Structure formats: C-alpha cells, structure tokens
Amino acid sequence: xxxxxxxxxxxxxxxxxxxxTFLTAFGVFWGIFMLVIMLGSGxxxxxxxxxxxxxxxxxxxxxxxxxxxxxxKGFPRGRNFNFDNDDATSLRNSIPEIKYLAPRIxxxxxxxxxxxxxxxKSASFSILGEYPEYFLIDPLDVVEGRLINERxxxxxxxxxxxxxxxxxxxxxxxxxxxxxxxxxxGVYFKVVGIFKSKRTGEHAENENQNIYMPFTTLQKTYNxxxxxxxxxxxxxxxxxxxxxxxxxxxxxxxRHSIAPADERAxxxxxxxxxxxxxxxxxxxxxxxxxxxxxxxxxxxxIGVSNIMLVVVKERTKEIGIQRALGATPVKxxxxxxxEAIVLTTFAGYFGLVLGVGLLEAVNYVLExxxxxxxxxxxxxxxxxxxxxxxxxxxxxxxxAGFIPARRAVAVKPIDALRYEQ
Length: 421
Fold this sequence. Notes:
The chain is about 55% helix and about 15% strand. It is an alpha+beta fold and about 425 residues long.
C-alpha cells in the first residue's frame, strides 16, 4: 500500500491527462459539496424551529374559551362563558396524569395603551397573571431578582416581574429596577425580578415586553372575581398530553353545560402534536437530502468508473506486461482501485472541506451582522455526518475502481501484449 513506485505510477496516470482528471474529479467534488450544503441548510432550518421552541415543555396543551356553536340545555348557540377557579381545582383533582396546571389571565384590554406608569414615563405592555407552574411550562432567563412564587399567590402580593424591554423603556440605563415601583390600574407594584425571553426574533421581542404579576393579585386588581383566561397544562412523563387534553375538555364541557359534540366552544392547542409534525417534516427533509445528495454523488462516481475504464483500455498493453512479469490479479486490481480511491477521496474531501467552510462562513456572517432569522439558525454538519460522508467517499472510490479492475485482469496477458491502440 505504501510502495513508492505505486504512488509515483498513480501520480503519473492522473497527471498524464489533466483536463480529464479535473472533469472526473469535479463530479465527485460537486456531489459531496451539494450533500454537505443541503444537510447544513436542513440543519439550519431545524435549529431555527427548535430554537423558537426554546426550553418550552413540548408535552403541553393550552385551553381557552370561545363561543358555543350548538344550543344545549336551554342555552342558545353563540353563548360566551369563562373558566373559573373551581375549574382549576376540578382539573387538578380529576386528572392524575397532569404534571403542571397553570391558570393564566390577561389584565385589561388586549389593545390597551399606556397602561403602566413610572414617574413621568408611561407605556403599553401586556400584563399577565401567572402561577409559578407556568414558568416550568415556558421557562424564562432570570436576569435579576426572581420570578413569581407560591407566597406571592397566597398573599396576593403587589409584586411584578418585568421583561428586559420594559426596563429599557421605563428606567434609565444605569438605574436599578429591582425594588422600584410601577403604577398599574392606579395600584403600585414592586419590581422583584427582570427576565429575558429564551426565544428569538419577534417572539422574543413580544415576550420581553410582558409584565407578570401573581395570578390572584391580577384577579383582584382588575376586579375579575374568580375568572380564568386560559390554562397551560403539561402531562406527566411518558403520558401523551392528548390524554390530558381529552379529559380536560370533557370535564370543562360538563361544568359549563356545553354540548359534547360542540367542537368550537373550547379552543385548544396541542404543542406536542405540532412538535411531532415538525419532527416528521425534518426527518423527511433529511431523508430527501440524503437521497438527492447520494444520487448526485453516484453520478460523479459513475463518471469516475467510466474514465477508469478508458484508462484501463489505454493501459491494456502495460497491464499485459505486468502480468507477464508475474504481477498477480490481486496486485493489478488493487492498483486500479487505489487510483480510483485517490481520485475520489481527494476530490470529495475538497468538496467536504469547502462545503463545511461555506456553512461556517454563512453562520459567521449571520451572527456578526445580526441578520439571523426565526427560519434559519446555525447551519452546519456535525462530526458524525462528516465521518459518514468520508466513509461514503472511500466506499465510492472502491466501487468506482472495482469494475475497471475486474476488466483489466480479465484480459489474458498474451492478448494484452498484442493489443494495439
């Protein structure tokens, strides 16, 4: 394998027709280059979607009220209704598969303006009443202070946790917001924490403008009584959240006299189902990329094999002399296969390196310019995929050289010596 004469012969053969060698190698280069680029791009799309889910519990479902669409028990269609605190108690006691149950409610009108005041500054933000469990369903990064806790809920404390954007708008850059007060609905609330969204893009911008206060405090502040806006629920480990979803909807329909067949009265969003759809989508993309990439690579390999057949034909007399001098069929075959492996490996490795380098360059430009989007993030291929691609190259080289090598040893030495080009 490390015979100097053999490597000199391989170099001479490949160098003897530079244009042919280049065009042959380009097919392999392009195949592996496109495979790497497509895999990296697919990973970029998948990373962006996964990043938008952040650390959110994917075994979650969200349930809210809508207008009824079927008359039931004397109630007309089009009826509005609200969840209440007793609904939360009933769900906790009736569904053992629930891991986290987090009632939520929004303060004020969705399009309210200038609903938060601090000194001479005022602005509009989303005010949300939360239980501590919700931050286990949809985690946040705590920049300073803390989040809402159980004592805040029990004692209906007048405290809030604000997003980083809220701090930027209502406080000066050098000011410490912790311990300061914001006026909401004419009531003063103490800032006990500052958070930053784990998401990216527009999702992060919106979330960083939220203000969270204890759920019970918000009910009292806005005079909502025992009304609940909607529920965030997760299932226990190993249990599909759809099981919890079906039971919860059935219980809520019975409690609010809603027809069992009414599919519109209770809105629900199953994050687990959506997450699985994305997983299935990207699995399909990966399979398609490998099929197209390997198909492109095989086209290049076929080109290498055809060229090697031409090379073998040109060297028929030379091979005959080698056989006449005692070269075994194995030696001749290994010589031809080695030439094919060298050609495909060098060309393919160059395509692999260039593809990875291009992906890294794109990633660097996106990060340094801040041009990253919610749809594309951190494109690239991991080490395992690179090794698989390298294995494909070596196997392809063997495959490309095997048929020409078999043809070379199939010719009898005496016939090869008589061969004239």
